[in-house]
Amino acid sequence: MQLMAIDNHKRKLLKSSAAALALSPWLTACSSSSLQREKAALVSCSRTANGHFSAVVADSNGYPIYSIPLPERGHGVAISPNGELGVAFARRPGNYMQLFNIETGKSYAITASSPDRYFYGHGVFSSDGMTLYTTEGEKKTSQGIIGVYQLRDHQLIKVNEFSGFGIGPHEVICVDDTTLAIGVGGVHTDGRTPLNLETMQPALVYLSTESGKVVERVGLADHKLSIRHLSQTHDGRVLCGQQYRGEPEDGVPLVAIHQRGGALIPLKAEPEEWLRFNHYIASIAVLGTHVVATSPRGNCYGVWDLETNQLTEIASLVDASGVVVEQSGLNSPQWHISSGAGKVVNRTESGIVTSHQTNVMWDNHWNRIPLK
């Protein structure tokens, strides 16, 4: 019975993907031969004005090269270390992940969640590209699970699960070859409706990939700061962005940094400055000694100096979404920052800013494709 339920759900997802491909003229435009000659540099999920969803492979300026239709709204994308494969994850509480070829735009098998599980929007490949770690959870309890999948003949086969680390995991990253860092939101939900705001227990958790055991766990003083999105500095510290689940008038710190073995330290800004981010951080990326964090709900992004942990600037950007760092190629090292309204901002660490408009409604995250 369970297998039948999964198969029926998978057929529904495939039909949705086919409908998106057939009905969206923008998807067809993305696959034109002139665009395909550009070099793939960025990947993100996106939305279209007529209500369809896709993963988009773009050049370094954010202009689309390929699009991969998705059955429902996507969120994060995992990219294999060699830059060949991508996996787009459904927005939480999601029920699919889509494997695709970044170089050609070809879709492979879609993986549906089991009837009693959600995907939580993120995953990451191991350094050898053969294992994918995903954030998942039980529907009835929101108990967190790290799904462990092996890549076999362009299919993702679940081979293991890690659990017992908390409720409502969101982003997962590899901090080294044997350790995962997980942003555990702590929120038990029915769909997207929170049920335990007074008792939630968010944490930044480090997990062994060999044993699945928790090797370190740290939290914040305010238990209503749900830890969501992660990034890593060049010296191995982990940054986390929060969603605040408390009172609307509270201006609480939404970005924190952690050195292994120490406390989780909030970055600095005035309460009224934190309120500009409207209680939500979507994406984080580090360049040199500075970090950029975006807020689509606040229509802005912030820049912090990691030598002082002090906010240096808040810049307005409508529906500020993904941010990623480009450190190679012809351009100077810079952040690429995307907008759900299609704008792309390029910013150097010294503060030189350029921007241009694309026809893509970018979603929350961007990923950089490794250069070959």
Automatic annotation (TrEMBL):
Top-level division of the source organism's lineage: Bacteria
Signal peptide: none
Name of this chain's protein: DUF1513 domain-containing protein
